[in-house]
Amino acid sequence: MRPVAPALAEALAPFVGGDLPVRLEAWDGSAAGPVDAPVVALRSPDAVRRLLWHPGELGAAQAYVTGELDVPGDLDQALTHAFAVARERGLPRRRPSLTAVARAVRTAGGIGALGRPPRTPPSQVRAAKDHYNLSNEFYELILDPSMAYSCGYYSSLEMSLEEAQHAKLDLVCTKLGLQPGMRMLDVGCGWGSLSLHAAEHFGVTVTGVTIASEQKAFIDKRIADRGLTDRVEIRVQDYREIPETGFDAVGSLEMGEHVGRRHYATYAGVLHRAVRPGGRVLVQQMSRQGRNGGRHPGGGPFIEAFIAPHMHMRPLGETVAYLEAGGLEVRDVQALREHYVDTVAGWLENFDAHLDRLTALMGEEVVRAWRLYLVGGSMAFRDGRMGVDQILMERPVA
Ligand SMILES: C[S@@+](CC[C@H](N)C(=O)[O-])C[C@H]1O[C@@H](n2cnc3c(N)ncnc32)[C@H](O)[C@@H]1O
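Above: query sequence and S-adenosylmethionine SMILES. Below: predicted holo structure tokens.
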């Protein structure tokens, strides 16, 4: 087979707006681009098909997840490099003619017709839709023992992930002013980290709600094992259907991201209605730059397609305005952006330590998607494109 890379480089140049920014290795063994740049390996013509069909993040992510495109070196380093080049060059002013690029690639590579890429396997679509019902074991292998799936609080540099999650839960319970005998509501309780911590360490009675039945099954077992059946109740319930009012405190850790712009006022209203006058509410939520969350409010085309569709993030100020409009008085906002870089590093360490088991459980493609999600997420927090904040509020006494 003729070497394809020089012509591929030429064909791909319009997409990158200049010289090749990476070392490109093609499936025929040829290579092009700077020798000291991160390596991107195109293992199959399907990688080119996907990049042509969905230029940019989505096509590249699809090709990476399927293994048609690989990054043999450090993924973080390669993505950081790609982002830096994209920022420096900006997007190409005009989208290149698909037919022209396809013709050039085809002539060079002899890869036949460049039609539609293969479809995304249904298993991946299901994995994204069922983010929280994926498999409890999958999350157990990645998260800390408390099963907190939200940003930890590294109050000292030497903390482990487990200690940082414990410190975060203590911080939340302290900010909420929990005292023995109080009633607390945990909206979007995940695998029960806050509900169980509040009951065990602060002596409160807790109601937790989640939309994932797998999570309820997991927490119910922990409740029984720890003798907390009379103090913690977990329900599979949408936040809009919580009937009770008069809670002394309400916590909602990283659930607000699932509430779109259309419903956020309702979410704020639910929090306000659930807590008694004078009671406290703490929302921990991720934010992102760009008015109204920009074109991709859910964290970008990759996350929206592969990990968790229907997520919605916005600048912190917009979220605060919604909560205030819902009748809550904001008392304190604490930014924890850097803590997410360390939290994700902890998750990635667990991920790498259990790679074989994770692959056996979920398959190669889900595991590749998750690596991209974790590495890309950590970068977004490190670079300030995303943030996470604890917003402490009080329901005013009328
Ligand atoms: C990122 S997890 C956070 C879990 C937990 N708060 C923690 O810190 O570990 C988001 C949680 O919100 C829940 N959730 C999403 N949409 C919901 C809805 N409409 N009503 C109730 N819970 C919801 C999910 O089931 C999941 O438990």
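The first strand starts at residue 23 and ends at 25.
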